[in-house]
């Protein structure tokens, strides 16, 4: 099996290759555009009006949802106001969970638990910081991953104490559970007035995601080293 270090190096080479290809294509495009006077003026106009500006957010259109009326019939309802649309999306993305069947818990057979005595190491935190994308959208804390990369030498000792404390006392801070949920359009849908044409994406706080990444890697290593995963 391919080791995690080999996979990490291959992933890094892949990212570097894609970045260089994009850079080369952009430079070739600029060179082609500046060969003619018309192309040069277009490039100057783009730089003056649009370069460096964030994309305009698409407006949420009128939504159509199916609901039951007082007589029990299913009818299509048009939603025009923003609060109505938000309530409909919230109901779609976060439906009430069903009660789980727990009758087999007492009679179930469980393997011996794996004791985890190792604490999180600074190297694991450093590897996680290097792994994350620099400019990924942040959560409510508004701290991008680029900040963690720039200040990692100062931050890692603090993260080391903080992360190990959360594991030791078994407490995940509430601030790390809060998220901003965005509604994104599913690609290649014919009708975006249907609420089923949207999907949610949750933006969590940066430090919470970093801890989750560290723990996900530790769990993967434990599962592989203790043979808890099927061979397939």
Can you give a write-up of this model?
Helices cover 47% and strands 11% of the residues. The chain has 7 helices and 4 strands. The protein is flat, with a radius of gyration of 25 Å.
Main β-sheet description: 2 strands, antiparallel
Instruction: Give the overall form.
Output: flat
Number of strands: 4
**Cross-sheet strand order for the largest sheet:** 1-2
How confident overall, as mean pLDDT?
A: 86
Distance linking N and C termini: 12 Å
**Strand percent estimate:** 5-15%
* Helical coverage, percent range: 40-55%
In N-to-C order, the SSE pattern is HHEEHHHHEEH
Alpha-beta content class = mainly alpha
Radius of gyration based on Cα positions: 25 Å
Sequence stretches where pLDDT stays below 50 over 5 or more residues = none
Continuous helix count: 7
What is the strand and helix layout of this fold?
Layout: H1 4-33, H2 37-49, E1 63-68, E2 74-79, H3 82-93, H4 122-131, H5 145-150, H6 152-169, E3 179-185, E4 198-204, H7 206-225
Helix pairs in contact: 4-6, 4-7
In short:
The protein has helices at 4-33, 37-49, 82-93, 122-131, 145-150, 152-169, 206-225; strands at 63-68, 74-79, 179-185, 198-204.
